[in-house]
């Protein structure tokens, strides 16, 4: 019985596959109208659509209508479960020339050597309407065919969690873009921002609102929110030159394009930034958000007194690596410790910053003995698990093999020294010194006496000359400011000047110099602020706009130098600009 059932089903399955193959190969060619009834002051859109590619398309004569635009061509192709889906459309925009009933005649296309024709369609044109809704001008077509979109990776991030924003310009296949320029770049207030440069504009296929479009990525930026609550991302605005096909034809029958300038905007986006939870927050938490590893290492553990070793406190991983303080080790007081040198090796991708940061301490022991470096802890918040984590390093023992000991007995023994005579320290006092008397009026009336009397009179002209000289120097305000500014610039930019020619070292030193200057003048920790926050602080301190912009531009150059080539000439220009900016800001502050 079972075998008979399968024998009956096999022909049915074969027939089903045959029908499916037939339907897949079946050619369709049809016409679609935007409306079948319209006012004489309205516009009609006519689409001729086929499911397979064809040639020799012939449009109807459109009796009773005037062709405003077209034919514009759009192609859509996709593969779903191994089945190819294809669509090709010729579009026209028509304007009625008279009232009445008209027929959109048959169009023809040749597909695989066979000619197919569309069915005629009836259209009724009435009297003018009050509000025409289909007046498709060049600007109307550009509005429908051009869209700027800001794609945000996360709408509800935590404080200091990375959020990527990608700006894409979508362009319909029916038009072309010949040029664009930014009108208004967004200011990321309350965010620490890091641009990811777009080195090349690559057009890619995509869809917008279900329709086939091509798009290019214009701008990429990673944001770290610095405040909880609702934060707005300002829109990016562009002026785009668009070429739209018209109904006119040139001598060779090709469509004539009309150009228009359109302004597109990505629109404002709002993030709902969540505060970091208070529950379970470690006491040593310094603001690190992400996924990190932590370790404390030393260059060696066995050495002699007066030799040096390096202790490194390092955090590596992915997160806000530039926005938190590294923990400080607790070292024994008998070890001489120098100020740490900060090292940074961080790169930024759309998923956020990743790499490592470290503080390198130079340690010099003075006495023999064993010195423990206690474990150091580092805490961070993991936004994936929404929990805090604390990592601890191992205890490190520094073994000083040889050198003086620091015990009290040693100090006493070294303070006792054997007295050695040279042979003439202890002599008898002479009882007859052979002294001779001097006259009671020896000084008075002598040349020295009169010289001391005349000396103040001689010093008066010298004092007058020095006083005038000092007044002249004090009156030279510009000269004094220049000298002071030069001293200030040399103070903060000395390391950067030494590194001229080495791009990475120069811009690291220049960025530190700029931040250290602000720390000294404004008494702030600039590592906690974004460039916009720094600009806001300078504005509050009455620093003029040009100086603020040049200062922020220098900070941006320091960041861009990690990813872009910079010449020696540009490094020298940035160094000179930094000297001028520090000089100007110092006078204004």
UniProtKB/TrEMBL annotation:
Q: Where is the signal peptide?
A: 1-23
The membrane-spanning stretches of this chain are 449-466
Origin superkingdom: Bacteria
Q: Name one Pfam family in it.
A: BatD
Q: Which UniProt keywords apply?
A: Membrane, Signal, Transmembrane, Transmembrane helix
- Name of the protein in question: Protein BatD
């Amino acid at each position: 019985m079972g075998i008979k059932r399968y024998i009956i089903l096999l022909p049915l399955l074969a027939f089903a596959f045959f029908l499916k193959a037939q339907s897949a190969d079946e050619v369709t060619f049809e016409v679609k109208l935007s409306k079948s009834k319209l006012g004489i002051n309205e516009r009609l859109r006519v689409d001729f659509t086929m499911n397979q590619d064809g040639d020799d398309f012939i449009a109807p004569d459109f009796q009773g209508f005037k062709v405003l635009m077209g034919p514009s061509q759009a192609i859509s192709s996709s593969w779903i479960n191994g089945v190819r889906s294809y669509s090709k459309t010729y579009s026209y925009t028509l304007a009625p020339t008279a009232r009445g009933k008209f027929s959109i005649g048959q169009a023809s296309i040749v597909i695989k050597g066979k000619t197919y024709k569309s069915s005629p369609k009836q259209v009724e044109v009435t009297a003018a309407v009050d509000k025409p809704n289909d007046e498709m001008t060049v600007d109307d077509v550009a509005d429908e065919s051009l869209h700027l979109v800001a794609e945000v990776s996360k709408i509800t991030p935590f404080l200091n969690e990375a959020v990527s924003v990608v700006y894409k310009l979508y362009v319909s296949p029916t038009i072309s873009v010949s040029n664009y320029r930014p009108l208004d770049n967004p200011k990321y207030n309350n965010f620490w921002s890091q641009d990811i440069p777009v080195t090349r504009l690559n057009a890619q296929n995509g869809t917008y609102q279900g329709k086939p479009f091509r798009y290019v990525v214009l701008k990429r930026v990673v944001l770290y929110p610095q405040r909880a609550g609702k934060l707005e991302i300002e829109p990016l605005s562009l002026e785009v030159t668009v070429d739209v096909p018209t109904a006119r034809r040139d001598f060779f029958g090709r469509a004539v394009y009309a150009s228009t300038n359109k302004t597109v905007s990505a629109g404002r986006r709002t993030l709902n930034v969540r505060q970091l939870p208070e529950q379970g927050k470690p006491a040593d938490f310094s603001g690190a958000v992400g996924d990190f590893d932590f370790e404390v290492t030393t260059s060696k553990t066995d050495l002699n007194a007066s030799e040096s070793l390096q202790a490194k406190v390092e955090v590596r991983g992915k997160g806000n690596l530039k926005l938190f303080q590294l923990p400080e080790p607790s070292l024994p007081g008998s070890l001489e410790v120098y100020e740490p040198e900060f090292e940074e090796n961080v790169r930024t991708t759309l998923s956020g910053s990743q790499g490592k940061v470290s503080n390198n301490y130079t340690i010099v022991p003075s006495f023999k003995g064993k010195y423990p470096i206690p474990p150091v802890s580092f805490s961070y918040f993991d936004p994936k698990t929404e929990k805090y984590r604390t990592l601890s390093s191992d205890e490190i023992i520094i073994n000083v093999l040889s050198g003086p000991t620091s015990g009290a007995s040693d100090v006493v023994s070294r303070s006792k020294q054997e007295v050695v005579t040279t042979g003439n320290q202890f002599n008898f006092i002479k009882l007859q010194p052979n002294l001779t008397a001097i006259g009671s009026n020896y000084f008075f009336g002598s040349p020295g006496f009169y010289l001391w009397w005349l000396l103040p009179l001689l010093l008066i002209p010298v004092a007058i000359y020095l006083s005038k000289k000092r007044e002249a120097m004090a009156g030279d305000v510009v000269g004094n400011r220049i000298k002071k500014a030069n001293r200030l610039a040399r103070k903060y930019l000395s390391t950067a000047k030494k590194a001229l020619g080495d791009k990475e070292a120069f811009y690291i030193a220049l960025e530190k110099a700029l931040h250290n200057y602000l720390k000294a003048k404004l008494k702030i920790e600039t590592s906690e602020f974004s460039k916009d926050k720094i600009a806001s602080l300078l504005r509050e301190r009455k620093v003029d706009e040009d100086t603020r912009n040049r200062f922020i531009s220098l900070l941006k150059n320091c960041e861009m130098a990690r990813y872009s080539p910079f010449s020696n000439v540009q490094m020298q220009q940035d160094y000179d600009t930094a000297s001028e900016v520090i000089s100007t800001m110092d006078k204004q502050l």
